[in-house]
Amino acid sequence: MRLILCILRIIVLLLFVPVVSSAQISTGLYRDLPDSLKPADRLHLKIPEVNKILKHWFKNAGWKASYYDEADSLCFRYAGSYRRLRTVREQCDFVHTICGYLYFSSERAMEVDESLVEEDEILPPAQATMGLRYCEVFINNFPEKSIFNEHFLPNIFLYKAHFLMAQRKHKEAYYALLQSKEIAAGKAITSSISIAFSSLGYLSETLGLPEMAIRNYDEALKVIRNEPAAAWIIGQRIYCLYGKQRTFFFDYVKTNNPVLVDSIQRLHKSIGSFPRQYNGAMEAESHVALAGVRYYQGRYAQSIAHVDSAIAIYPNLQLRGLLQDAIAYRALGSIHSRHVKEGRKLLKQLNFSKVRSPVIGRMLEDLYSLSVLDGDYKAASNYQRYLLTYVKRKARLELRGRSIELEQIYRVREQENRISKLQALQYRNMGIAVMVVLMLIIVSVTIYYRYRIGKVSSRKLIAQVERMTELQAMQIEEAREFERKRLAQDLHDDFSASIAASISYLQIKANQAVTEDAKLRALTVLNMLKESYDRVRQRSYMMYWEDQTAGFLKRIEAMVHILFFGTNMEISLVSDLGGFELNADSKATILLILKESITNIIRHANATQVEITFFVDMNTLILEISDNGRGVGNRQYRKSLGLLSLKKRMEALGGSLSIGSQYPSGTVIACTFPLAACGSFPAEHPGL
């Protein structure tokens, strides 16, 4: 029957939605509205005026019950009129206001009509049903880019979650709160994140999940820890502290753990440390929670004292939904304290449809026992029925909470498994990447090393080719010089001699000629031969002397630079023979000494500077080769086959070779030749 009446009520309210022109408010409400909220005409309200009233109605906590009914009527009548607003911005704002109003209104409605009956018989308030509908309207009709206020979307999912809780759809409410938190976190809205966490704490508390509830309340406090102490921030902190205290209280009733009592009392002191203007209602609720602890402990006088403190701090406990809890503690506490008459009088005011205390099971057991003792078996039966319904409902909520907890654990495990797989895949890919990089490095180093080796080898090969080319050029030049000298000698010794003999013979024949004509012809031929003889002598002289010692010194200079090519040594070469001409044996010996000495310096001396001097002093030809290397000892000198061979060559020419050290480091090779054995100073125009 109640279900049918509720459905008819919703239908009637929805039918009145389009009838906007007849909407009006009472004279009393119009009078009590602040000037900023009063409409221009109380008999014909406009949508923006309704929007303003519904948006700020919760600031007027002193309204009469009839005023709240009028606000409900305005909300139901005007909710569907959002389509008449011209801009998306106005529509979005109005629908958000409707959802917010229904959220607060549904909480008030739930406190009015909920009895200890089977859960399936408890109807959700019409505000929750309508609020869920308009939350979906907001989500579907207003994409995020058209929502001008960043708080709206997190708020809508928060409202949706509470509407779902009013309909006992706790799992859907849980995921709606997660969505609200994720959206707020994405936009970095601190207030919305904290509210989402505290709502998750309340839901966990309702479903009998104390650990999850405490964790969420702590997260809500952590989010606003560094926020400035504004009124809203202080109120949220107090609410979270009270939520933790209430959770500890529920858990204490369930487990009877005395440690939780200390936590409840500590949180009570923390709530009381805030100014009364912020914590008045919450401090009163905290006293009611302590009254429940004392009642459960059997300290009935202290329980009544906490109830009195709560009423003194906040007389209108009915607005907080705790009046029936206070009456229950006082009534049963008085009976247990042997103030039976006063207690029974209070019991008549008790309505278990509004008792929210977790010790209600203990209360019902006590009332059942008292009714049995009084012989009132009908009342005892009712209390027993209430107790069974309460236990069944509590067990069902705990099963839902356990289901959500297990599902959350499963989701966390799945997430951990996905993370583990991703990490394994990441490690594998990282290993492959490292191996590829190492292989690339190895290949690059190998290529670079081979390139460097090839480059060095190429340089060495080029240097060797250049050196060999220079040496071959020197050998070719020496061969040409030898051939030139041999040809000059042949011209001088053979051809010139034959011509000289022919000249002598023709001279004799000319002198013996009988006739003048014969004598003239003989003399003509004789003059021709003499001219040829002179030309041959001159040519042989030029061929023999055209590349003598001056050309040899140039070849020495070229050879020195070729041998030291690529060594980065500083070379100094000084030569001055003063016109002295070297013979072939001395030239060969000098070249061999230079080649062997330079080779030893490059291979063994580790020098940076080399000086070579070649000059004539008195009757001696001197060649000195010095470096600043590490020097050579007598033992090394004895083992050097090349130096020993050169020494023998020097001795064959009548010269000497000595090797010694110089200060501060280095080696000096000194070679001396007697001039008589090496060549001669040529005459000005020598004859051949």
UniProtKB/TrEMBL annotation:
GO terms for molecular function: protein histidine kinase activity. The keyword Transmembrane helix applies. It comes from the Bacteria. It is an enzyme of class 2 (transferase). One of its GO terms (biological process) is phosphorelay signal transduction system. CDD domains: HATPase_UhpB-NarQ-NarX-like. The keyword Secreted does not apply. Keywords: Kinase, Membrane, Transferase, Transmembrane, Transmembrane helix, Two-component regulatory system. Residues 593-677 form the Histidine kinase domain. It catalyses: ATP + protein L-histidine = ADP + protein N-phospho-L-histidine. PROSITE patterns: HIS_KIN. Its EC number is 2.7.13.3. The chain crosses the membrane at residues 430-451. This is histidine kinase. It comes from Dyadobacter jiangsuensis.
